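Page 37, continued from 36.
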């Protein structure tokens, strides 16, 4: 998160607290907020068509210093040091291509790809902002900027598609072994010579086991990688199942990406900025449910739809949401996190809705670790797509997730320990049982939910204004 200077304008006191932003006058302040949110905020998805106007600035470093001169950002030496490295890579990538079909590569050795960067540090320090600013200035159409979780979902879909396309095994004959990872890496390499990953983290054993081969092939095909993460490379998939098979990937990552630390010690998302009005309620507050009902009704009144259930089609599966109206959906925690939903479901929700109500979030202990992981994934998806949230929870934001020392989870965890042949003491050090990964990731969730309550986030997340412009 960038060091942003908060700015706001007067609003009518007669509006309900959560909706003050909706009738804000459409004047030049919106243009300022657009600039602020694009580069002071975080995970917005950028592609070649959405990139900012590059004609004003010569590159990412010039852009960063320009925003400081204009008073949009406050200078941060840690951000500037990383931006200087990215600016140099931006210059190096001018004219770069990993295409194997060029005349040059037919007659000469393919040029060696430049090293990328792996940028890590605490939450809210501006990692995503500097990467996105770099991305917007790279002069090639063959570039992709994706959330790492979404990228791995796409990889697994490609692997499944290639396996399905193989001829069926004839009865009585052994099937030939087929490794789809190299072809998938080649497909991706043909689509992009630069991949920018936000929130590089590994929690899934299915991802962990294929990363070395996948990225080795991407790098050999000339793909340059720039990634952000809250963990240093050595701590990726820490205490994960079969981590010994994952560790070689770290060496591959460090061979092709230089590690940069961006850690100013400031979470800019938590700095005081104008609030959008109350959007986080406690169950213990009087009339909290009624306040959410009123907010939903006021938002729904502006929709060209009726309040009704919605059924989403996600990769052939039906996901029912009980209460929705247009781009507004009103859900319970049980609906969203107590069912076996995953990133693909949450991405579809983020695509269809610009405001999500989440009611009855309980205290999340280690016994609810699976639900906590789903909430983390849900918030990542909503944040990445600038979806606004209204929350009703049993505990204040900072206290939602409690890590109980010595707790060992519920029966599912015990069953998995038995299946793996692990004793309770042996399993306690593994992140899948200890909840360590959830505790670490939840720091990001708290930081993001804090920012998601600000006025500029809500203004930027109002899709109705975009459709009119």
């Amino acid at each position: 998160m960038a060091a942003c200077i908060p700015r706001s304008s007067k609003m009518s006191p007669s509006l309900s607290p959560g909706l003050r932003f909706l009738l804000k006058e459409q004047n030049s302040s919106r243009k300022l907020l657009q600039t602020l949110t694009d580069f002071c905020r975080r995970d917005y998805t950028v592609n070649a068509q959405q990139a900012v106007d590059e004609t004003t600035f010569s590159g990412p470093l010039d852009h960063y210093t320009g925003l400081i001169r204009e008073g949009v950002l406050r200078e941060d030496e840690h951000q500037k040091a990383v931006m200087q490295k990215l600016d140099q890579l931006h210059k190096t990538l001018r004219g770069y291509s990993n295409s194997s079909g060029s005349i040059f590569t037919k007659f000469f050795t393919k040029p060696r790809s430049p090293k990328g960067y792996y940028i890590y540090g605490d939450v809210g320090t501006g990692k995503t902002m500097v990467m996105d600013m770099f991305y917007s200035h790279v002069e090639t159409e063959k570039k992709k900027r994706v959330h790492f979780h979404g990228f791995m979902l796409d990889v697994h879909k490609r692997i499944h598609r290639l396996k399905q396309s193989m001829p069926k095994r004839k009865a009585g004959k052994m099937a030939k072994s087929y490794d789809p990872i190299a072809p998938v890496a080649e497909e991706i390499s043909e689509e992009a010579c630069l991949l920018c990953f936000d929130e590089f983290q590994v929690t899934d054993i299915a991802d962990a086991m294929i990363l070395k081969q996948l990225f080795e092939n991407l790098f050999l095909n000339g793909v340059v990688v720039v990634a952000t993460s809250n963990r240093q490379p050595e701590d990726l998939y820490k205490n994960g199942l079969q981590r010994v098979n994952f560790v070689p990937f770290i060496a591959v990552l460090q061979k092709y990406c230089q590690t940069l630390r961006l850690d100013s010690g400031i979470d800019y998302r938590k700095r005081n900025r104008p609030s959008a009005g109350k959007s986080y309620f406690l169950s213990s507050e009087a009339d909290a449910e009624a306040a959410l009902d009123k907010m939903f009704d006021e938002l729904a009144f502006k929709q060209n739809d009726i309040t009704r259930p919605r059924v989403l089609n996600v990769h052939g599966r039906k996901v029912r949401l009980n209460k929705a109206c247009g781009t507004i959906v009103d859900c319970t925690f049980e609906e969203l996190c107590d069912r076996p939903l995953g990133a693909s479901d949450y991405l579809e929700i983020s695509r269809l809705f610009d405001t999500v109500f989440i009611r009855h979030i309980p205290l999340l202990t280690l016994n609810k670790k699976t639900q906590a992981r789903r909430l983390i994934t849900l918030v990542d998806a909503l944040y990445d797509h600038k979806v606004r949230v209204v929350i009703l929870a049993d505990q204040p934001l900072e206290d939602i997730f409690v890590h109980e020392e010595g707790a060992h989870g519920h029966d599912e965890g015990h069953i998995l320990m038995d299946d793996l042949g692990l004793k309770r003491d042996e399993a306690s050090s593994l992140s899948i049982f200890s909840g360590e990964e959830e505790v670490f990731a939840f720091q990001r969730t708290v930081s993001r939910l804090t920012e998601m309550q600000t006025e500029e986030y809500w203004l930027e997340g109002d899709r109705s204004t975009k459709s009119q412009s």
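The chain has a mean pLDDT of 80. Flag for discussion at group meeting. Residues 148-165 form the longest helix (18 residues).
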